[in-house]
Write a structure and sequence with these properties.
Helix content is 29%, strand content 25%. It is an alpha+beta fold. The longest helix is centred in the N-terminal third of the chain and has 23 residues. The protein binds 1,6-di-O-phosphono-beta-D-fructofuranose (FBP) and magnesium ion (2 copies). Its main location: cytoplasm.
């Protein structure tokens, strides 16, 4: 079976990007081991601190962040990094050619219940003469690579370098990621949706009507029944969408007027949008294609509607 390293070297990917992606994969292997250890590895529970977004940091959020930060800082190709758990951009090597944004641990509320969590990476090109946060202010369209590792019953790595979406599984026998799908395809149609319905009363009218029509099923204008899933880890929900199709939504809500959106553009929405688009799906906010958004802040949040092309298009109709 082809390893990640073999795949990267035989598919015309820039040699430096290959090296960076191998470093990201190494991070995934190490975090995967910590996740597997659970309480025995001392990684469960919360810390005393909050991140810049006012969220209590779990121990594993901090451990995963420190591990990735150390590995990336030691990689001369990395110019700077931005993380969910870092208030500011961290400068690394001024002549490095890559900017890396990451969510060290996605699905933090799942850690202590032994449910799905993952790590998400987005790689942008460094910009000559532009430093700090300003360098990261590029639309997702500029991403050189997007990748996540999902720590589930198997550890899985999904990757796109702009030429389709590819899936690997970690082989526990030799610690290598092995190719399992070289052309991930999201079916255009689906009968499965994912949204946190506890926020229903806070959604905007467009999302209210769209979900109401899904719930009426066969008896309503959609004339078919829909199933629902919610993993509470975007990485798990997107993995399901890449595996069998579906529509995943985290729309705008008015629960907390100071925070109308939940998911972060730079290290959640953009990389997932690239992986989904490269597999034939669509990723939008409802009003704008995610990867076309011009960022203004590394921790900026956006609405996310992604997945099976025809179903996302149907949902977007409600937003017109
Ligand atoms: O708490 P909710 O509303 O179920 O939200 C779940 C969403 O929040 C997130 O967990 C946010 O990510 P973090 O765990 O990295 O903060 C997403 O992965 C997930 O889709
Ligand atoms: Mg996250
Ligand atoms: Mg996180």
């Amino acid at each position: 079976m082809q390893t990640l390293t073999d795949f990267l070297s035989s598919n015309g990917i820039d040699a430096d990007l290959q090296q960076l992606l191998s470093t990201l994969a190494e991070c995934g292997v190490e975090i995967s081991e910590l996740v597997r250890g659970g309480a025995l590895a001392g990684v469960l529970g919360a810390t005393e601190s909050e991140n810049v977004q006012g969220e209590t940091q779990k121990k594993l959020d901090v451990i995963a962040n420190d591990l990735i930060k150390a590995k990336l800082a030691a990689q001369p190709l990395v110019n700077a990094l931005a993380s969910e758990e870092e208030d500011y951009v961290v400068a690394c090597h001024s002549d490095g050619k890559f900017l890396v944004s990451f969510d060290p641990l996605d699905g933090s509320s799942n850690i202590d219940i032994n449910s799905l969590v993952g790590t998400i990476f987005s790689v942008l090109p460094a910009q000559n003469g532009i430093e700090g946060e300003a360098a990261f202010m590029q639309p997702g369209r500029n991403q050189l690579a997007a990748c996540y590792m999902l720590y589930g019953p198997a550890t899985v790595l999904a990757l796109s370098t702009g030429n389709g979406t590819i899936m690997f599984t970690l082989d526990p026998r030799d610690g290598q990621f092995k190719l399992v799908d070289e052309a991930v395809t999201v079916p255009a149609d689906t009968a499965e949706f994912a949204i946190n319905t506890s926020n229903q009363r806070f959604w905007q009218p467009a999302m209210q009507s769209y979900i109401a029509d899904l719930l009426v099923g066969k008896e309503g204008k959609r004339e078919k029944n829909f199933n629902m899933r919610w993993i509470a880890a975007m990485v798990g929900d997107v993995h399901r969408v890449l595996s069998r199709g579906g529509i995943f939504m985290y729309p705008q809500d008015s629960k907390n007027v100071a925070k109308p959106f939940k998911l972060r553009l730079m290290y959640e929405a953009n990389p997932m949008a690239m992986l989904v688009e490269q597999a034939g799906g669509i990723a939008s906010t409802g009003y704008e294609t995610i990867m076309d958004i011009q960022p203004t802040d590394i921790h900026q949040r956006v609405a996310v509607i992604l997945g099976s092309a025809n179903e996302v298009e149907t949902c977007l109709e409600y937003h017109k």
